[in-house]
Amino acid sequence: xxxxxxxxxxxxxxxxxxxxxxxxxxxxxxxxxxxxxxxxxxxxxxxxxxxxxxxxxxxxxxxxxxxxxxxxxxxxxxxxxxxxxxxxxxxxxxxxxxxxxxxxxxxxxxxxxxxxxxxxxxxxxxxxxxxxxxxxxxxxxxxxxxxxxxxxxxxxxxxxxxxxxxxxxxxxxxxxxxxxxxxxxxxxxxxxxxxxxxxxxxxxxxxxxxxxxxxxxxxxxxxxxxxxxxxxxxxxx
Length: 237
Known about the structure:
This protein is mostly helical.
């Protein structure tokens, strides 16, 4: 019992919460893809298609994130990851365009055909999730990172598969959730950039540097996102 409590106390719960939040905010597309891919299945096969499609998509994402976490150890790649996270955060803040996101998702009346469609679509759409979750895991101890990622993904699965509509309604009612999520991605981006070996070698070792860079990243995402939103609104008027 004492060992279990010590293990729980050693987990970076901040990283876990960030991973869950990121996967919920960026994972709404997955629920839509799963629904589209399975809609032509016989009723008795739909739950199986959802289950196996979700399982395969999460397993694929764990593999991709494992490689992403390993690659972030190389010099300059954290800078690249930070820049990509700023872009992902801005994309999250911007309202969706009128064009359909999933028009090209193929459907199938066969179970494994639907599962294959889900896996292919998830592979194509996983870049933002993979980079964001790998960045969030960076703040944890190296020995915890993969375990935290797997745990965070598993916890978020019910939200993605069964709770996507609820999450979307909450976002519609409380738009600040999306803004907060974008700021979190910007915060992680700042941490990644100053944590890169190329940058870190030229900066003093002080927590204020990390906090300042993180706050700058969050402000950058919010500023660019809201600026582009106003520009888009001006074009439509």
